Amino acid sequence: MTPVELHPVVKRFIEDGGALSQSLGLGRVVGQIYAFLYFSDVPRALGDLQRALRISKGGASMGVRQLEQWGAARKVWVPGDRKDYYEANDWFGRILKSVLMDTMAKKMADGTAFLDAAEAMLKPGDENAAFIRERIAHMREFQGKAAKLWKNPLLQGFLK
Amino acid sequence: MTPVELHPVVKRFIEDGGALSQSLGLGRVVGQIYAFLYFSDVPRALGDLQRALRISKGGASMGVRQLEQWGAARKVWVPGDRKDYYEANDWFGRILKSVLMDTMAKKMADGTAFLDAAEAMLKPGDENAAFIRERIAHMREFQGKAAKLWKNPLLQGFLK
DNA sequence: CATTGCGTTCAATCCGTATTGAACATAATA
DNA sequence: TATTATGTTCAATACGGATTGAACGCAATG
Known about the structure:
2 copies of one chain form a homodimer.
Chain A: H1 8-23, H2 28-38, E1 44-45, H3 46-53, H4 57-69, E2 73-76, E3 85-88, H5 92-121, H6 130-151, H7 153-158
Antiparallel strand pairs in A: 1-3, 2-3
Helix pairs in contact in A: 1-2, 2-4, 3-4, 5-6
Chain A binds a DNA duplex through helix 4.
């Protein structure tokens, strides 16, 4: 598959975007694809991604779908062409929120359930569980603060 | 090395704590060690960590040091014993801040530098770079908002 | 000064997960 | 319906980073 030449600056952004998303545990290609789309003034098809980033067909397909799920890329219709074209969503706040919801909030949610389950495991008469109860109560307290912060308009405004 | 029996609830917290820190890209053992220390009412030595968590000597040593660097565990002196004992810091906000500073803030910082460098790469007369400039400006804007949010008392209070 | 107990280091290994690519599914076109 | 152009799936693989454990350094003790 014949490569594609990129503006040096865009190339750097793709490299660093890939490294960033890699370091955040999101995989390298999603960062690369997003960077490529973000710096493209026209929509791009899967084949463009393959050529520009030298990634496999499957990788392009899966990466772009992941970005779509996070609302970081959207499919656009190009008349007279039946390929799927994509462009970047530049609303960083929204994207960040999606990713956070997909990674953090989920954990938070079953964190609450987990604390309940843990406390239910403690037998009523369990003497030496007093310290454990204390610790769980302390976790609950922090969890409450975190939930409050998450709901705060300042933060939600940033992530809107 | 002979194992150690743990309270079932603590065992669950260790399992889940390990899974959580693993999923956050911090490695499994640090989460496990922290959970073990957090639910221990007495300080613990490296050997205790090895036995309780069935991890290697090196793993215990490195994990506990990482926690120390984040301020999530501290060394305590036990008179008449020359082993190093550790206990958990339960100030979650502070710990979270340390971890964030160590993982995110760093990236943010050289993100700024990177944008400067990228813009410097654009030749003054480069016509078709207009779109790239636009995009970089848009990134700067968001970066500014993020920096502002980070400095906000509400967030800093939570992370104090 | 030899020995013992403890903590640290780091090269080798292991393990999870990101990535590939061939096979398949689907839809448009001739 | 056969063919061509596209997108998807998933088992196999490659890769990076987490984990191990033997070797080492150091300090206390006899």
